[in-house]
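User: Could you check the structure of this?
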Amino acid sequence: MTKASVFLVDATAFCYRAFYALRELSTSFGQPTNAIYGFLNMLNRLLKERRPEFLGMCFDVSRDNFRTRKFSEYKIQRPPMPEALSNQISLIKEVTSAYGIAIFEKEGYEADDIIATLSRKARDSGLGVIIISSDKDMLQLIDEVTVVFNPYKNKGLTYDKEAVLKHFGVKPKQINDILALAGDDADNLPGVPGIGEKTATELIQQFGSLEELLGNTDKIKSDKIKHAITGSLDKIKLNKELIVLDDNIDIDLDLNGLKIAQPNLKELARLFKYLEFKKFLQDLPAEDGGAKEDIALTELGDRDLRPFLESPGEIVLYGQALGSLIFYSKDRLFRVKNPGVNLKSILACPQIKKIGHDLKKIRVSLARDNIVFAGLYFDTMVAGYLLNPSRPAHDLASLAWDYLGNRQPGSSLSNEKAVGLIYQLKLALEKELRDKLLLSLFNDIEMPLVEVLADMELGGIKLNLRLLKRLSEDIEKGLIDLIRNIYEVSGCEFNINSPKQLRAILFERLKLPVGRKSKTGPSTNEEVLRNLATKHELPALLLRYRQLTKLKSTYVDALPALVDRDTGRVHSSFNQVVTETGRLSSSNPNLQNIPVKTDIGRQIRRAIVAYSQDSCLLSCDYSQIELRILAHISRDTHLISAFHDNRDIHKATASLVYGLDEKGVNEQMRETAKRVNFGIIYGLTSYGLSRDLGIPVDQAQGFIDAYFLRYPKVKEYIQEQIKKAQRDGFVTTIAGRRRYLPQINSKNQLIRQLAQRQAVNTPIQGSASDLIKLAMVNIHRQVGQENLPIRMILQIHDELVFDIPKADKRGFVELLRQKMENVWQLEVPIKVDIKQGENWLDMEEVK
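Assistant: Sure, the predicted structure tokens are below.
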């Protein structure tokens, strides 16, 4: 009876398995993490399900070992460890050590040999051994107290002596003899010609061992096999030497070292934070205490708040409903008992500076209870986002760990702890904003924008529900006809939403050519269907079906369900801390992605209507703002001249590229130039342009070359931005917004090229974002100061939509135009196209 069992893991195999199981996982700064993440999942599963007391992780060190010295072609067919995996091995070892788990490795030996040595020493000490590996070589180590557990086989398969005999027909020690004869493709060990695993097994079963076989070759019945073996004696003996694991390495078996120690929580937290493993970080036990915990929470009556009104200062708060708010100010941590007029006055007072996390949410929540919340001064969520827009999360717990080293899983954060963390975060974040020259952007644009977005959410969007209902019914009828048509063209009925059944129809029944392949089979994504649409009518019908069902479910049917019963409007959330370029996004519903080029998309726009019969919608759209910003930051004289002369920029580009007078430019030439103009901003390649225009790659490259020949400063700008990103690790907008691009120096060409495109595009797109945000702030401020009946209801990319009274329309149009066109003074004029209408689709231009 053994005292306990030692678990020995082939950790290098664990790493490879994890690396190939999870692809394309990395941190915001470019550190690959897929192998680490997968390794941790497997390790945690092992710890949870098997609860080992003694555990050792065994790693390979290098390929240079005693086997390669004996046989230079040993494992030579295996490619070197991928760079993305090798970059993770040291971190995997750091995490393993932080878990309190022993690591074993030795130069010149493989993990298998280390496991063999530790297994022998454990047996000699009276311990049982459980080896975690899927390598067949490990089976040779099985005996009365040693088993091999393959965690990848079904739900896990354990091999003991009986299981090996059942599965392989031989005893564990005889596995080596079979491999010596048949060879091992995995290790590049050539077998005896003509002898496979089946024949090798039969021979070992007959003779009992390889040594008996080689000593009695005259008793082999088959002359062919006899000659093959006698002609390969050196190869067989070498194979056996290489396959037998070395169990006599100079490694000590220290049971105290193998015993799993208490995990180093502080080190694990540091590593999980660095690796951006939010889930693993949150699963760690919370640290005791929190910021400001030394200050007792007191309850104040509403009358006790008079001093705060008499000497306004800063106040930190957390919570949403009036009764749940916790405050910190003037060295006091307090909650207000029976909140009344004084608390409401504090919240409404703009001179009392409010510090919090996600102040927009608090403003919206309080406003729904008719409570004014003003003086929004410092939002830690917005500050954290501005400092690192690539960070995967900007919640309070994540920022507290990043900037304070305080680990507080979000689920355990009380309002009292949250207030203390916000107070300390404000100090840390404000300093970093100042150090990184971001404080002006924060104070002048991002913080004032919080109020703007809150008021837009509160105002909401009015819908024509009758139109949406009719549209839903029409789409439903159209889908019935479309499905019938799909079945007719396919020659059978099938589940259109099933990729498996769709693959069978497209590639087996109709024999259409396979494009891309996924893990589950040939891809049926949109790009594949578009390419196939030229060869058969079914793919085009499928694309139409997908478009209709998506629009119906995402907008036509979803929008009415989101209407607030009290206001009769839809209140979308405008997200300030999502995109890496600074652009706003919207959710629930997402109004940024309504496809305006489709008929149904246009009908959805028609369903967004003015608040009343006495008002109308006004659309104010920046004209070609990204190209104007490109002209400004590149200082290209041709671009600048075209905008100053108010020329059609796409015709102007076409005339330069084609060498024609603008009058000679036809619509197709203009469209090509338009694709090139915008493609340059987004790093379009000749391949991408050729695919978009349906032209040969060399012709597309010719267009791009001609563009740069006519706009040389644009090319210089692109080259300079890439160099800047490579040197500094980030790029900036006109207003100083940063985007970090750690992948810009990646050795992976695809990753590096993507970062290069981002380096070129971000200053342009981000500057356009900063410009419209500042316009929103300026307009909102003037509307508030003069109490104007203008409601900003939507922001979509470069467009602002307002609800304004019809009676004073002309004056409001001029006000909005003046505010939007004079945000910044650029090298080129800023122009806004303004349209008006009863709804968002049927609009007329306002001169």
